[in-house]
Design goal:
The protein is mostly helical. Helix content is about 70%, strand content about 0%. The protein folds into two domains: about 100 residues, no CATH class; about 50 residues.
Length: about 150
C-alpha cells in the first residue's frame, strides 16, 4: 500500500461518521505525520506498517471523537452534512460523478417531534376505527351476553 492509498482509505473510512472539518483536520495531521517520519529516515512502507490498517485507525479516531464530544462537550454540532471527499456541498466525488449518497443527520429534538407526530396519527386512526365500530359492537355484545345468560337460567 502506498501513502496515497493509505490516505484515501483513511478518508473514506472517516467520511460519514465525522464532520468534514474533523475529517480534514485528521487528514492534515496524518499528512504531517508522514512528512515528519520520512524526514527522520523512515520509508513510506515503514510508516504505513507502524500506523496499521487505515480502517482500524479510522474506527479509533471516530470513537475518540465521540468520547470527546460526550465527556468534554466538544464543539461538535448536533448534526452535520458530510460527504465522502471531505468537502461540503455538491456531493460529487472525483471525476465529477455522483458516486456516493449525501449523509444527513437529524437533530435529536426534530427526531422527537417527528416521533410524537407519528404517535398522534396512529392514535387518531385507531380512535377513528374504534368510534366507527363501537355503535355496532356494543349492541352485539349485549345480545350475546343476554343469550348466554338466558341459556344458563334454563
Amino acid at each position: 500500500m502506498t501513502r496515497t492509498e493509505f490516505m484515501d482509505s483513511l478518508q473514506r473510512a472517516l467520511a460519514g461518521s465525522l464532520t468534514s472539518s474533523t475529517v480534514n483536520e485528521n487528514m492534515r495531521f496524518y499528512e504531517e505525520y508522514f512528512d515528519t517520519q520520512i524526514r527522520s529516515g523512515q520509508s513510506e512502507e515503514e510508516v504505513i506498517n507502524g500506523l496499521g490498517d487505515p480502517r482500524l485507525l479510522a474506527k479509533t479516531i471516530i470513537q475518540a471523537a465521540k468520547y470527546q464530544a460526550r465527556n468534554y462537550g466538544g464543539n461538535t454540532p448536533e448534526y452535520d452534512e458530510v460527504y465522502e471527499d471531505g468537502s461540503q456541498g455538491g456531493g460529487q466525488a472525483r471525476g465529477g460523478r455522483n458516486s456516493f449518497p449525501n449523509v444527513y443527520r437529524l437533530p435529536g429534538w426534530l427526531t422527537l417531534v417527528l416521533g410524537v407526530a407519528v404517535l398522534c396519527v396512529v392514535i387518531g386512526i385507531v380512535g377513528s376505527v374504534v368510534s366507527l365500530l363501537l355503535p355496532v359492537a356494543i349492541p352485539v355484545l349485549c345480545v350475546i351476553i343476554l343469550v348466554r345468560w338466558l341459556r344458563r337460567r334454563n
